[in-house]
Amino acid sequence: TSPIAWLRTRFYYLLIRLYFDQEFSVEEFTRGAKQAFSVVSKLLSQRKLDLLNELVSAEVLQVLKEKISLLPDSHRDALAADIDAIMYTTEGDVRIYYDDDGIKFVSILMRFWYLNGANLPDEVPGETKVFQIVFGDESTKEKRHLLTANYEFQREFTEGAKPDWTITRIEHPRLLE
Predict the structure, then answer these.
(1) Where exactly are the transmembrane stretches of this chain (predicted)?
(2) Which partner for 118 in 9, 10, 78, 84 could form a disulfide, CB atoms 3.0-4.6 Å apart?
(3) pLDDT tens, residue by residue, 80-110
(4) Domain assignment of residue 73, given as a range
């Protein structure tokens, strides 16, 4: 991340703590986002979309239902991210906004890099190289792919709103397009 983007996200986190949630912690949010990413990605991989109602917005869920049904098994398997296989996580963007009715929202885009052992071709659609990591010696090779995903989390901070984060965007580039 660029230093300017890093400073900007830290400024937004400060605003969240000052004006919306004095208990907000970047570390705690990131831990929760990783857990949510792992759970949601596994449910997507298993096509258990009915279990995502409380975690994912209705609009995103509708799009996912259409896309998941068209995926080949190898791409569907590659969606699953075990929490221990998440190699790196970072914030992509933080936004605070109000709608015309005075409803306050905070939106945080998280980027995840994770290892997955799905049987993907060396090149996935879109002309992008998938990184492959080989564990073990020549006789016991275990091939893993380093994949990325972007999940956007949104929470309403209007008084009386449920204090839950909802996933409002799910992107698994080159897999879920």
Answers:
(1) none
(2) 78
(3) 999 999 999 998 899 999 888 889 999 999 9
(4) 3-171
